[in-house]
Write a structure and sequence with these properties.
Layout (H helix, E strand, L loop, with lengths): L3 H8 L8 H12 L11 E3 L21 E8 L26 H13 L5 E5 L4 H8 L4 E7 L4 H9 L7 E7 L3 E9 L16 E8 L6 E8 L6 H24 L5 E6 L13 H7 L1 H12 L9 H9 L3 H8 L8 H11 L10 E3 L19 E3 L4 E3 L2 E6 L6 E6 L21 E6 L1
Parallel strand pairs: 2-3, 8-9
Antiparallel strand pairs: 1-14, 2-15, 3-5, 4-5, 6-7, 7-8, 9-13, 10-13, 11-12, 14-15
Amino acid sequence: MATSSQEDLEKEFIGQSNDITVELARLKHEFGKEYKPLIQRELVDVPMDKEHDGKDNNDDDDETLAQFKLMSFNVLADGLSTIYDAADTRFSHADRRCLHFSYRGFRLIEEITRWKPDVITAQEVDRIQFFKHYLSPLGYKCVHTVKPQSACLRIGNKVGKQLPPDGSAVFFNSSTFALVKDYKFGKHVDRGAPKDIRNLAVAVAHLKHKQRQNKEIIVCSTHFKAMLTMQSEEQRLRQLCYLLPKLRGLSAEHGDIPLFIGCDFNAPATAFGDFFPYAYQSMMNGKYLHDVLKMFLDPQNKNTSTQQEEKEKEKELSIAQRCIKQHDFSKDGKMAQNVVELLKAKNCEFGYGLQLKSAYCFGEYDGKKYGDNPLFTCYSPFDNNHFGIDFILFDERKAKVQVTQLLSTPKEKSLLMPNWEYPSDHLAVMASFKI
């Protein structure tokens, strides 16, 4: 049972009403000229899904299909916003007033509700009661789990303030979906979990569409290990080896229903400087990565194709596969061997038994080409750079999944977040689907 201090902590920042429009009007009056509209974005149609026989995704004649919008959003935990630790200067670019959750919290709700998603996978959720307070009146229910070793707790201990732990959540609109069952994965809830998955916290919801009751989905929200180092990349691989077989098993248990993963992956889909995305490629191009690494590690297994044959083969490669083919693995020390051995030991050599695709690879807008993920979904103050590290992934081994719309991401890479115009250091990403 919650103590009075815990209850007060959970209610902190909740306004006088549960109506977000009322609270936003109050903010606008309170901050005057400092208050800015959220950055301009738009839902972009994906007119043709090239993976499904050229079928037009916007053809609504098939009334058997279920349609829904899924958003993934790292909301920047209040405890990680630098407000509580004066020594933390990560967001020194921002006016400290716009970093306070008394401002940011309402703008986070605004960013969510202006796009009316049916499902939200959220990361770094520490003020869970705040989100419930403003999303529940709009019909949302949630599954939430916390990180066992949340950095928010460490910061709270450092500054002598009780702060709630952050974690992952799946919110779903109860007018669109009914909850069949929820699951939570991680060391704190799974006694059989290996120690090497560290601080992974996973919220999963098995949902049934209310209008198309033969349509069910499994939705996962999680947040992977941070930092672009080979050590962190191995950690992400270990987290994938733990999580993806579990999700595959859940999907298979219910007739291979579609699986959706919204995550802050904390690593980009493509090479960045000396960093190569082993973990992302192991999910999306597992067999091709395995074959290339085996060829690299075994000098006897040389490619006997002619130069012309190689050119013809390269034409058939996806953008991601070309990233693998062009990388010099000799620069990564023993990483290639470690990856092959780890995936083999975990029986996860070929894409973890899934056929994962990234929703954002299906559209073109503002210079983003078909087959590419956005280059910018997160601002990293550590090296003053922008990365595309937030993904909506889906598996379609059995059921076909159509991507019909994408929420655009800004081209402007000088945008430093959070700020008055955007309440997180991550952009929300969103896709509309038909199943």
